[in-house]
Amino acid sequence: MKNINVLITYPMSSYLERQLDKRFNLLRLWTFPQKDEFFKEHSGSIRAVVGSLHVPNDREFIDSLPNLEIVASYGVGVDHVDLACCKERGIKVTNTPDVLTDDVADLAIGLMLTTLRRICESHRFVKGGLWKTGEFKLTTKFSGKKVGIIGLGRIGTAIAKRAEAFNCPISYYSQSKKPESNYKYFPSVIELASDCDILVVACPLTEETRHIINREVIDALGPKGYLINIGRGPHIDEPELVSALVEGRIAGAGLDVFENEPHVPEELFKLDNVVLLPHVGSGTVETRNAMADLVVGNLEAHFSKKPLLTPVV
Questions:
Q1: Is-contact 242 265, C-beta < 8 A?
Q2: Strand order of the sheet with strand 92-94?
Q3: pTM to 2 decimals?
Q4: pLDDT confidence tier of residue 128, bands split at 50, 70 and 90
Q5: Among 2, 183, 271, 280, which residue's beta carbon has the most beta carbons within 10 A?
């Protein structure tokens, strides 16, 4: 397979690059400053793309590669890939589900604990020498809080199971009721937000779920409610969230993702009731290596004419 040209669009993982280098002729897009010249020279020979949300694989990008056969996404979300275009062209698309479920769910629980118990703020309190001047303020208990989850898929279910260990009643919203689930179902996000203490966004990003968290939902969550987002930044109407946090219309937020990454609204930097993370839901050595192995496994399966391990298209 060393004669097969594979284009990787962004420096996602040195381990992934090493594994691809061993098997394919790997082209690193970011090492070519003149993109137009690169595509003129190589577009006809590229048969596979390894991508992530950092570089959109939109129709223009896909159409620039006439012999593209497969897009292997390094991540579970495929909102950066024009799936309709891939279907039209007969291009296969894969992702990396399951292997990152535990890490993302763990982080969601970590964000809940850190946000409600003000762990980051109390850390700064000690490091700033303020403990000598008095006790840290009281915070909010996590155990027993009502947790509402938007999207009861692999990750949403894993979050629910973890939250149950803290005696948290679980409810959820999804496109339809899950007959196999005993959790309380709400037919709308507003009803879910009105009934929970902590609202967790764990659904895929689609046109239907873009800005699923809007002013109406935020107001339904209310001044004692907390918002956790480990999905995608565009799930939330970010200016509305910022104003709600500044005005105290919700109690706090734990955010791993943002609408225009890596740019984060600077108003959030001044707030102590917000925990901000740089999109690290799956960011452990173990999981990122497992994701890389799945990307490589899908490419090997495709070019060996075997069934794909995790097909999307």
A1: yes
A2: 25-28, 5-8, 46-51, 70-73, 92-94
A3: 0.94
A4: very high
A5: 183
